[in-house]
Every structure is written in structure tokens, then in C-alpha cells.
Write the C-alpha cells for this entry.
Amino acid sequence: MGQIAALAEQGQRALLAGDLEQLAALMRRNLRLRRQLYSDAVVGAASLAMAELAESVGAAAKLTGSGGAVVALCPRGEQQEAALRAACEARGLACVRAELGPPLHPLSDGAAAGSSAGESAV
């Protein structure tokens, strides 16, 4: 769990820096750690299938925590997002675009996180 907590801190820094490739790599690592910690049986076949679908277009995915959904990040932008959306629709999965706004509480030293990450998060 300490490794997962460290990933969250690194992810915060990547998000503030606008480094979506690094954030995607951290999301992938988070999923690998969760699979090791809980096992694929606990994570669930449906969640793993959604994560693998995201990976099939080069996107990164992590679990939402309660099952039934994943959060995917398309670090390469709109074309990758369109590819993910098409892949989801082909499998009968809903794909909802998340828009990131300013945080309710500053993430660090009063820095605003109004980055363009929401532009490519699905």
C-alpha cells in the first residue's frame, strides 16, 4: 500500500507538470500493483477487460475502486480518445469524458491544476 500511496504523490506531480505520459505510466503501475495485492479474481474479469481495452489503443487505465468502471487516460490526445471511444462502443461499453477543473483545495503550494489533462481523459 505504501507503493500505491507513493504513486499518488508522483501522479500529483505529473498532473501539475502536465506530463500526461508520466501520469499514464503511473496509472499502469497502479493497476499492476493492485492486481498483485488483490489478485485478478478480486479485481474482476470485467474491470480487467476494460483496462485491457484501454491499453489496446495505448491509453492507460486504473480501477475506480468499487468495480464496474475504470478511469482511462489518453495521453496522446483526441485521436487516441476517438479510438478508445470506438473500441468501447464496439463492445457495448459506455465511455464518458471527464473534464478536470480547478481543485477545491490546492494540490501543492497554491498551484492550480487547471491543466489540459481533461482534454484527453476518458
The CA atoms of residues 87 and 93 lie 8 Å apart. Confidence is low (pLDDT under 50) at residues 110-122. Helices lie at 2-17, 20-38, 40-43, 45-56, 78-90.
